[in-house]
């Protein structure tokens, strides 16, 4: 079987969609499936091409047996709404054109970038092949929820039409959690054609380890209780409250380590400088293979989300990476992610955007090492139940269903 995958994000980009798609694809290749991925030059979230890539019309490479075709796109940072829309549109067009010459038995397109989904749908139509739509986040709901556009915006109305067309035409739809599946059913999508494949983790890559001495010295973490956030500093993440928490805890031994980049990064740096905080370390994005060591630097890891209805149905993939490394998770969220962490006793959940609760939870974990240590077992169980191997195999089963080869 030959699977043609259309995705706007792919390694060496470090965001969750890029990692999930790559980790799945390389396991499918190991299972004997031929996989071709059409994607862009790696540039997320800054909108700048990563070395040694260039934003060429077409470039090919092979990564772990995966045939990767990278197409030219209009590049824009994740913070520029209109320019980012042009980025999405250009990828939709260019990925479709590049995909026309690629053979496939089944096409898979992955959202939340709906124009990537439209490209996949049109490729499947042109090739007279079935296709699968993976939905990690509901577009355009999330755009409206984050106040990036209003519901009455003509572009949102157009995306609503595209959304409905994609749901109807896909042979299979896969979501990352049952809540998203329920929301699709409410919109009239038959439940029988919706599968659920959660986010997961490679427990070997994210194996527990002590704090790396070199990084502790590099970032000045010695003797500090380190609260970390590692990932995209985007519009969906409540990092303003994290900086406020650093201000509230400035006279303690707590230090905040914020690793990553994104739409909020510059504003967060300005906020910390204006408050003259010396207990916050900003670290630019690190290669994916260095992420585990940066997680290991921390005594507790944050997963802070904004308070919106759509984010209540979000299951951040970083939860599973943190759990695999047996670090307590402090999540600022309502909904399925908070419920999961509490059900496994792998950390603490506080209300999103609630400074007092966040500071209180950090103080609790800092002052009670036995409580933090007790969460290790919950983390181990959580990571064990969400194995990357297990769910990559389930995703391949969904693709075979779409292809009619189950």
Describe this structure in words.
With 406 residues, the chain is α/β, with parallel strands linked by helices. It folds into two domains: 2-200 and 388-403, Rossmann fold (3-Layer(aba) Sandwich), CATH 3.40.50.2000; 213-385, Rossmann fold, CATH 3.40.50.2000. It has 15 helices and 14 strands. The protein has helices at 16-30, 81-99, 114-127, 141-145, 154-169, 178-186, 213-219, 239-248, 265-274, 291-296, 318-324, 336-344, 355-367, 369-385, 388-403; strands at residues 2-6, 34-40, 58-63, 66-71, 106-110, 131-135, 172-175, 194-196, 225-230, 254-259, 280-283, 300-304, 329-332, 347-350. An eight-stranded mixed sheet has the order 3-4-2-1-5-6-7-8, sandwiched between helices. Strands 11-10-9-12-13-14 form a six-stranded parallel sheet, sandwiched between helices. Helix 3 crosses helix 5 and helix 11 crosses helix 14 (369-385). It starts with a strand and ends with a helix. 50% of the residues are buried.
């Amino acid at each position: 079987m030959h699977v043609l995958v259309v995705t706007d994000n792919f390694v060496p980009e470090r965001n969750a969609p890029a990692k999930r798609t790559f980790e799945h694809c390389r396991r499918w290749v190991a299972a004997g499936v031929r996989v071709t991925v059409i994607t862009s030059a790696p540039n997320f979230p800054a909108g700048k091409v990563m070395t040694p890539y260039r934003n060429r019309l077409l470039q090919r490479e092979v990564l772990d047996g995966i045939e990767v075709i990278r197409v030219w796109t209009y590049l824009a940072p994740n913070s520029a709404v209109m320019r980012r829309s042009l980025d999405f549109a250009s990828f939709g067009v260019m990925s479709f054109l590049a995909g026309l010459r690629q053979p496939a038995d089944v096409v898979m397109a992955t959202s939340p970038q709906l124009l990537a989904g439209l490209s996949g749908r049109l490729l499947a139509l042109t090739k007279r092949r079935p296709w699968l739509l993976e939905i990690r986040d509901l577009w355009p709901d999330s755009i409206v929820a984050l106040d990036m556009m209003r519901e009455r915006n003509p572009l949102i109305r157009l995306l609503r039409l595209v959304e409905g067309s994609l749901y109807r035409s896909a042979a299979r739809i896969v979501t990352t959690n049952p809540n998203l599946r329920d929301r699709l059913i409410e919109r009239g999508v038959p439940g029988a054609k919706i599968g659920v494949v959660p986010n997961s983790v490679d427990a070997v890559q994210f194996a527990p380890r002590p704090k790396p001495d070199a990084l502790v010295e590099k970032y000045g973490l010695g003797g500090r209780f380190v609260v970390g956030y590692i990932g995209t500093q985007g519009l969906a993440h409540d990092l303003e409250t994290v900086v406020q928490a650093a201000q509230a805890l400035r006279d303690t031994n707590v230090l905040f380590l914020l690793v990553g980049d994104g739409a909020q990064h510059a504003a967060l740096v300005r906020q910390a400088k204006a408050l003259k905080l010396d207990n916050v370390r900003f670290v630019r994005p690190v290669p994916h293979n260095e992420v585990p060591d940066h997680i290991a630097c921390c005594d507790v890891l944050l997963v802070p989300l904004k308070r919106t209805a759509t984010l209540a149905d979000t299951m951040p993939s970083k939860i599973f990476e943190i759990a695999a490394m047996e670090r307590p998770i402090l999540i600022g969220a309502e909904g399925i992610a908070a419920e999961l962490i509490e059900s496994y006793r792998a950390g603490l959940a506080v209300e999103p955007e609630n400074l007092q609760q966040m500071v209180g939870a950090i103080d609790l974990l800092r002052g009670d090492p036995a409580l933090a240590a007790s969460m290790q077992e919950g983390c181990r169980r959580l990571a064990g139940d969400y194995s990357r191997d297990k769910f990559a195999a389930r995703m391949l089963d969904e693709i075979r269903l779409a292809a009619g080869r189950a």
